[in-house]
């Protein structure tokens, strides 16, 4: 290929930037806690937590009046995981139970890859549970919610017994190299790359 043709080829591209969310240098995003006897754990969650939520929803009890807190919003979940303890807030005085549908089709692995680290580095006590395949549809039905990110965070004093039973069946990941590290929110980076120039669209009928 001649230099003239090479220059012409590069002239057809423009510089652009793309967001980089993945981190190729760490594997903490895949370190989900191992759940022993997952079917029993899932049945406990359905019987104690999801059935309770469905009963409150069917009774049309306003969410702020529920005796336990529930959210499926990714942004709210991240905020709760990052906040320091506040004795005046019920969500900070009770255990956090974070359920993740990371095996279900349609749930973004890019969105979920930061969850194990967020839970591990949280100043709060978080019980992280990966659910079996098909759990997302059940959660959506019981909560009457889309739950598009595949996440459900629950808290409340009445969940203490459930959390204790689940914790006994979970092998928590060990990340000793992070024990003395203070959590800082991940900064979004931009990757310098190129994209083809768009050719002007010819008007119909123009010769």
From TrEMBL:
TM segment ranges: none
One GO CC term on file: nucleolar ribonuclease P complex
InterPro entries reported in the protein's UniProt record: RNase_P_Pop3 (IPR013241)
GO MF term set: ribonuclease MRP activity; ribonuclease P activity
Gene Ontology BP annotations: intronic box C/D snoRNA processing; maturation of 5.8S rRNA; nuclear-transcribed mRNA catabolic process, RNase MRP-dependent; tRNA 5'-leader removal
Superkingdom classification of source: Eukaryota
Protein name: Uncharacterized protein
Taxonomic placement: Eukaryota, Fungi, Dikarya, Ascomycota, Saccharomycotina
